Amino acid sequence: MNKYQRHEAIIRWVNEQGTVRVSEIVSRYNVSDMTVRRDLEELDDQGLLKKIHGGARSNSAFQYKEIAHEDKFDKNTDQKRYIAQRASELIDEGDVIFIGPGTTTALLAEVINYQALSVVTNCLPIFNILLKKKSETFHVYLLGGEMRSVTQSFVGEITNMSLENMRFGKIFLGGNGVKDGIVMTSSVAEAYTQKMALEHSVESYLLLDSSKVGKEDFSKLCHLSDLTAVVMEESNEDKKQAIQVYTELIV
């Protein structure tokens, strides 16, 4: 079990139990006391749990359940297609872009229609869509690593080492929820990889249907203020305002 897997496991366990002691984590995951304390400190800094004396306490008010990539396609399909089409208009010929995992970003991959483009992704379904468009001037790259079966995306040290040497003009990300200005997703490891790609991009766009506004998920991805803009479908004024407080909104 690597660091990111351990972090996810710790957070799930803490959320299930409410409170867990350091000694219990040491025994359960066969790691040192010092490693656990470092883990808890890092997860506390990310707002994923509350580090307390001798252990950790859950600060989650929701029941965590991740939905598989293929099961998300039937949800808010019209809104997602609208968002994907608007997002595609932000791309220019010759761009170097990164597309993160997600069903809305997969729809973006479907509607992309450019002759000269370089696209990097760590999501296998998105790579397979883009591969059909490959040409002498349309380049597609899949980052390898450890695959998460739920989202069919690659994460971990191998993925992150590849990203370390890459730079992008634009990044297009998905998210499972936005609350209090925080964009959230389902996996610590996936969030870390997308965060690294975001930090290596000049412009950054979150593709988000309005049903996710006000919802929480497992791991913090970024703050809305870290983004260039959020691309949403047209929605009511309250939901627009929830986004506009933090960043420019494109609708």
TrEMBL record:
Membrane-crossing segments per the record: none
GO-annotated molecular function: DNA binding; DNA-binding transcription factor activity
KW Transcription (keyword) present: yes
SMART domains: DeoRC (SM01134), HTH_DEOR (SM00420)
Keywords: DNA-binding, Repressor, Transcription, Transcription regulation
SUPFAM superfamilies per record: NagB/RpiA/CoA transferase-like (SSF100950), Winged helix' DNA-binding domain (SSF46785)
Residue span(s) of domain HTH deoR-type: 3-58
InterPro entries noted in UniProt: Carb_Metab_HTH_regulators, DeoR-like_C, DeoR_HTH, NagB/RpiA_transferase-like, Tscrpt_reg_HTH_DeoR_CS, WH-like_DNA-bd_sf, WH_DNA-bd_sf
Residues in coiled coil: none
Function: Repressor of the lactose catabolism operon. Galactose-6-phosphate is the inducer.
Protein name: Lactose phosphotransferase system repressor
Source organism: Fundicoccus ignavus
